[in-house]
Amino acid sequence: MKRTLRIVAAAIVLAAATFWAASGANRGWTKTSVPTKTVDDVTGIEGVTYTRKFVPGLDFLALGVLGAVFLAGVSFLIPKKQLEPGQ
Amino acid sequence: MIELRFLHTHMKTTIIIAIALVAFAGAGLAAPETFDFKDPKGVNNAGFRVDAPLEAVNGNADGISGTVTFDSENPAATQGKIIVASASLMVPNSMQQHHLHSDMWLDVAKYPEITFESKAFKNVKTEGNVTTAEVVGNFTLKGVSKELTVPVKLTYLKDKLGARVPKMKGDLLVIRSNFSIKRSDFNIQAHQMEDKVSDDIDLTLSIAGAAAK
What we know:
heterodimer; A: alpha+beta; two-stranded antiparallel sheet; 2 helices; 2 strands; 47% helix; B: alpha+beta; Lipocalin; eleven-stranded antiparallel beta sheet; 11 strands
């Protein structure tokens, strides 16, 4: 059980870090939509439209690490399996 | 008989002079035009920026409306009101947007409009089709009105409406402005959480209005 929790914790950190890095390593807040700028040819005004897209930020990474630390911490609270006499 | 003919000729001349004067006055003094800022292309926008730890929060609103009366011969007489629909304010993070719209911050349900109404134009300078000035007006946010003086740049684009909206004739007026306000002045979490969200809010306005002919 202890071992399983520690493996899951390591997997969470690895998965969160990989997803964060693969999504562009955004060092700001997590975004659920991204702004796209378009310039109006006649007026020169830069318009902004938002497209739904999940971009994990440092807060996402921190949440993953916190979750992993919690699981690893719990693993230390689980008592060691008592050996049966004669084992 | 001669007297009657003279009177007739005299009246004719007077009428011709009067018509010519009216035509001349009409050509020389362009009438003020009223520009509508509800943009059919949805490009008009008001942006804001507040400093926060990790990353500044940037957002935009595209729910712009209002009218401005502008006279290219007398830009100092410009007046109008621009309205931003509070609920159209967007930020890239849905949780931050929910907080922004809630009664903790802008309370968009109770205060659906952010407005600026001009009262006077100062330091007006015109070069070609571009006018710069300082506008004194009432800025209203979250139900609080304050008199502000903000810099503006007006660009008058004569006969350019058709280039933007096909089959329409008319003129365009582009307004740009950058200025700052303090959220504490408008009862937005006044003097609270300043370590998380700065008191200063930078605002930008980039809008174009149309006057159809």
